[in-house]
Amino acid sequence: MIAESPIGGLRDRVGYQKRMSTPEAGGGQTVDFVPGATLWARVTPLGTRWGAAADGRGVTATHSVVLRFRTDIHAGDRFVFRGRRLVVESAEGIAGGRTFLGCRCRETAVTG
Question: Range of 34's domain?
């Protein structure tokens, strides 16, 4: 899935945003993203898929984001990379270790 990276391979700057849910008075929830740290990472595109979304054409791109190991990144959080929002689908230590964290992310866009 994600190959181990030497620390010098982390050349991309990404902004980390924590997903926070706030209860609403009517019983629902509002989802906000709270800005966190700016991190060094390696962002690698993995593939794209076209389809129908929200009464239009949509595209979903998947990315691998590798960074130094952290325990505060979870599914639902996101990274901002060059103005693009990459939503974390999974995060796990690479090769079972605690040196690097590999995240599989998706980016979704709807056109026309």
Answer: 8-111
- What is the CATH classification number for the domain harbouring 59? 2.40.10.270
- pLDDT tens digits, one per residue of 31-82: 999 999 999 999 999 999 887 765 678 889 999 999 999 999 999 999 999 9
Distance, CA of 6 to CA of 89 (rounded, Å): 23
What 3-state DSSP class applies to 57?
A: strand
Q: pLDDT band for position 1 (50/70/90)? A: very low
DSSP secondary structure string for all residues of 78-111: EEEETTEEEEEEEEEEGGG-SSEEEEEEEEEEEE
Number of structural domains, the chain? 1
Per-residue buried b or exposed e for 78-103, using 16+ beta carbons within 10 Å of the residue's own CB: bbbbeeebbbbeebeebeeeeebbbb
User: Is the residue at 1 inside a domain?
Assistant: no
Helix (H, G, I), strand (E, B) or coil at 55: coil
The answer to whether position 3 is within a domain reads no
